[in-house]
TrEMBL record:
This is dihydropteroate synthase. Keywords: Folate biosynthesis, Magnesium, Metal-binding, Transferase. Its EC number is 2.5.1.15. The keyword Glycosyltransferase does not apply.
Length: 263
């Protein structure tokens, strides 16, 4: 899953048309490098990020979703928590919803159920604005994440979402210290007990920066190591910025994991 952020600071400021064109070219490049899904997001979920209104989010996301579907025939995931954005994106041909708030906003469960689309439910406590202020868990982090995701799956099923349409994400970097993130990845097999496909995103995140003391533009090797470990621990979709190198790392890991499977 290639990341396509369409927040105002992500692309050229040469006007709407130029920005849309830049987004399309970037998506085209990620597809050529082997991405199966393009994740389009109009809300920054970085720690401390300011909230955006559904209208602002739609203005950013809708033209890109429409163009990706029409011009590239891409499988588009929409990174949103807003029911309005879910509804409109589904109407424009999006193929998946990626919600870092796991459908907890008012109306989100209903909008997602009505869309019929697959949904990724991610673990996060609080909001991006405050989630990194002293994150704390009363039980081991992997148990807290598993309990949260199990409860969200139950809420989804009660709202009419089909279990085969759900994916789960532990939410690396969301309300977690570096130690929480390392422990969660080390013990990610715990989440396989929930019997749903796992999606993870660690690309360029601060856990790499903190362990390796690298600025964001030097985090690729660390991210590839994490991608390989995540696949080995059951992740089936990786949300990444650097698609080409990630596809190679994943395919190499997979070849080792498959060794002897067809003999
Ligand atoms: C939008 N976004 C940013 N980080 C993410 C992650 O780790 N997982 C998912 N599903 N979405 C994310």
């Amino acid at each position: 899953m290639g990341i396509l952020n369409v927040t105002p600071d992500s692309f050229s400021d040469g006007g709407r048309h130029v920005a849309l064109d830049d987004a399309l070219r970037r998506a085209e490049q990620m597809l050529a490098e082997g991405a199966a899904i393009i994740d389009v997001g109009g809300e920054s979920t970085r720690p401390g990020a300011a909230p955006v209104s559904p209208r602002q989010e739609l203005d950013r996301v809708a033209p890109v979703v429409e163009a990706l579907v029409r011009e590239l025939d891409a499988l588009v995931s929409v990174d949103t928590s807003s029911p309005e954005v879910m509804r409109e994106s589904a109407a424009l041909g999006a193929g998946m919803i990626n919600d870092v708030r796991a459908l907890r906003r008012d109306g989100a469960l209903q909008a997602a159920a009505h869309s019929g689309l697959p949904v990724c439910l991610m673990h996060m406590l609080g909001e991006p604005g405050d989630m990194q202020v002293a994150p704390h868990y009363e039980v081991p982090v992997e148990e807290a994440v598993a309990d949260f995701l199990e409860a969200r799956v139950a809420a989804c099923l009660a709202a009419g979402l089909r279990p085969e349409r759900l994916l789960l994400d532990p939410g690396f970097g969301f309300a977690k210290t570096v130690e929480h993130n390392l422990r969660l990845l080390h013990r990610m097999e715990r989440l396989q007990a929930l019997k749903l496909p796992l999606l993870v995103g660690m690309s360029r995140k601060s856990m790499i920066g903190k362990v390796l003391e690298r600025p964001v533009e030097e985090r690729l090797p660390g991210g590839l190591a994490l991608a390989a470990l995540a696949v080995e621990r059951g992740a089936r979709i990786l949300r990444v910025h650097d698609v080409g190198p990630s596809v190679d790392a994943i395919n190499m890991t997979w070849a080792v994991l498959q060794e002897g499977c067809d003999s």
